[in-house]
Amino acid sequence: MSIKGKAAVVGFAETKPQKSSGDRTALGIIGEVARDAIADAGLEKKDIDGLLTGIAFGDFSVLWPSVVAEYLRLHPRYFSQVELGGASPAGMVWRAAAAIEAGMCNTVLCVVGDTWGNRTLALKPPPFPRMDAEFDAPYGLIAANPGYALIAQRHMHEFGTTPQQMAKVAVDQRKNACKNPAAMFGNKEITVDDVLNSRMIVDPLHLLEIVSPCSGGGAFIVTSAERAKQGPHRPVYLLGAGEAGGHCGITRAPSLTTSLVKPAAEAAFAMAGVAPKDMHFVQPYDCYTITVIVTLEDAGFCKKGEGGRFVEEHDLSYKGDFPSNTHGGQLSYGQPGLAGGMSHVIEGVRQLMERGEGRQVKDATIGYVNGNGGIMSEQCSLVLGVQ
Amino acid sequence: MPDYKKPLPHPTPASRPFWEAAKRHELQIQRCTKCSAHIFYPRELCPECLAPDLQWIKVSGKGSVYSFTIAQQATHHGFAEEVPYVIAIVELDEGPRLTTNITGCKPEAVRIGMPVVASFDDVTPEMTLVKFRPA
Ligand SMILES: [Zn+2]
C-alpha cells in the first residue's frame, strides 16, 4: 500500500511576511490564511474535517491543535500538531494524505502562522530542548546560526566549498524574489560581492546568507484524489514522501556534511518511481545558503561534496537551467516561523498549478520539495506532480 | 561571580557526576558495560544497546577540533563582551563529540583537525565548564 497519487493539494494562501506583526496574533494570522486557502480551493469551512497545524513561537501552548480548532470553530475528525521544526509543513502533506487514505477524514486544512516582534503579547516562547540547554547553550551554541556555521565550516574543510559558491545561492534566489510581490526582500538584486561584504555573523556565514525572522502565515488544503478533480485548480498530487530523523543537537549528528536529507529524499523518489533528474524544479528548505548546498547533494542532484560547484555552474533562477526556490526562498521571502517552511510547499504547488505569474517555470509538471527542521535534524522530502 | 551572564547548565541526576568531575578538573564520560560504547551526553541507559548498566570513566581530555565557528556577533547577550569567540565541536579520542569553546589561542588560529586538550573554566563557585585549548 502506498499513498502515491492518493491525495492532492487543491488550494493555498499565504500572507506577505512582515518584519513586525503589529497587533496581530499568530491565531489571527492562522485564521486569515485558513479562510483564504479554503476559498482558494473552492471549498467551504464545513468541508474541512481534518486539521494539521504547528507550533507558533509567538503564541505557544500545549493542546495547540484544539486551540486552533476552537478559534476557527472547526470540527475535525483527524487533527494533530506536526512538530518537526521547519519540516513540519512538508510533513503535513503526507500525513494528510495518509489520514485521507486511511478513511479518517476527507479534506485536511494544513495551517501555520507566527508573529515576530509583537510587543502586545506577554507570551513566552517554548523552551529549548533540555540537552541543548545543558550541553550546548553554556558555550554559546544557541539557536540556529552557529549550528549551520559549524556545518558550513566542515563542508569547506572536507570539500573545498568556497564562500563565493555559498553566496551564489543567495544571489540567484534574490533574482526569483524580485518576481515575487510577497517576498520581504524582493526590491533589488544582489551580487556575490554584496553577500560577501555583508556583515560576518558566525564565520563563515554572512548576514545575507541567513534567514530573517518575521511574521506571517501559510495554509494549504489536501483532499482525496477523487475530490481534487472537482476543484478550481489543477490538482497537485503527492507522488512521493520520505522522512528522516535521529538527532536534535547538531553536535550529536553522525555527520555534519551528510544529512538526513539522503534517506528522506531516497524514500520520496522511490515512492514516486522517479529520479532527481526528472524534476522540473526544486524548492529546498533554505534557512542558510549552506542548507541548500547540502540538500542538493544529499537529495542526489549532484555528488556529495560537489554542491558548491553545482550551484556555481547552474542558474537557479526560475528561468534558469535548475530552477530552485522560485519564490526567493526564505532567504528573500522571509521566515515567518513555520510559514517559512510552508513557503517551499506552497511555491511547489503554485508552480505546478501554473500560478507562478512572473516567475512561472515553463511546462513544470513535477518537482521536489524539502522541509528541514532544527539544525538539519528533521527532514521531509516530497515529490509533487500533476497527473 | 554574581555577574556571570551566560547560560549555565542545570545538572540532572543523570549528568551530575559529569559536572562534579569537571569541578575537580577531570573529564569523565560514560561507558556501556554491555556493548562498550562511549557515551556523551550522560544518559540513564546506553543509546546504542539500551542497556542500563553504564559506568563512569575518566578520559584523557585529548581530542581534535571537528568543526568550529568564530562568532562575530554574540549568540546570546551574555557573550557580548567576548566577541569574537570560538564555538566548536571537539571529537574526543574516545569517540564522542562535545560542544565547547576553544580558548588559549587566537580565534583565527583555530583549525579543523587541530589537536586540543580539555581545560577547565571555573565560571562560578558552583559550576565548571569544560573548554579546550591547543594541545
Ligand atoms: Zn550499550
Report on the architecture of this protein:
The complex is a heterodimer of chains A (387) and B (135). Chain A has a single domain, classed as Peroxisomal Thiolase, Chain A, domain 1 (3-Layer(aba) Sandwich). Chain A is of the alpha/beta class and 387 residues long. The two termini of chain A are 19 Å apart. The radius of gyration of chain A is 19 Å and the shape is globular. Chain A has 13 helices and 11 strands. Chain B has a single domain (16-134), classed as OB fold (Dihydrolipoamide Acetyltransferase, E2P), CATH 2.40.50. In chain B, a hairpin with a 5-residue loop joins strand 7 (115-122) and strand 8 (128-134). Chain B is globular. The mean pLDDT of chain B is 97. The chains are: A alpha/beta (387), B mainly beta (135). The A-B interface holds A 130-131, 133-143, 145-146, 149-154, 157, 199-205, 249-252, 256 and B 6-12, 15, 41, 66-76, 79, 84-85, 87-89, 97-101, 112-113, 129, 131. Bound molecules: zinc ion (ZN). Zinc ion binds next to loops of chain B.
What is the element layout, followed by pairings?
The complex is a heterodimer of chains A (387) and B (135).
Chain A: E1 7-14, H1 26-40, E2 50-53, H2 64-72, E3 78-81, H3 88-101, E4 107-114, H4 130-135, H5 145-159, H6 163-177, H7 192-197, E5 200-202, E6 205-206, E7 216-224, H8 225-228, E8 236-244, H9 261-272, E9 281-284, H10 289-298, H11 307-313, H12 329-333, H13 338-352, E10 366-373, E11 378-385
Parallel strand pairs in A: 2-3, 2-4, 9-10
Antiparallel strand pairs in A: 1-7, 1-8, 4-7, 5-6, 8-11, 10-11
Helix pairs in contact in A: 6-10, 6-11, 9-10, 10-11
Chain B: H1 16-23, E1 27-32, E2 38-39, E3 54-59, E4 62-71, E5 85-92, E6 97-101, E7 115-122, E8 128-134
Antiparallel strand pairs in B: 1-2, 1-3, 4-5, 4-7, 5-6, 7-8
Bound molecules: zinc ion.
Residues 32, 34-35, 37, 46, 48-49, 51 of chain B line the site of zinc ion.
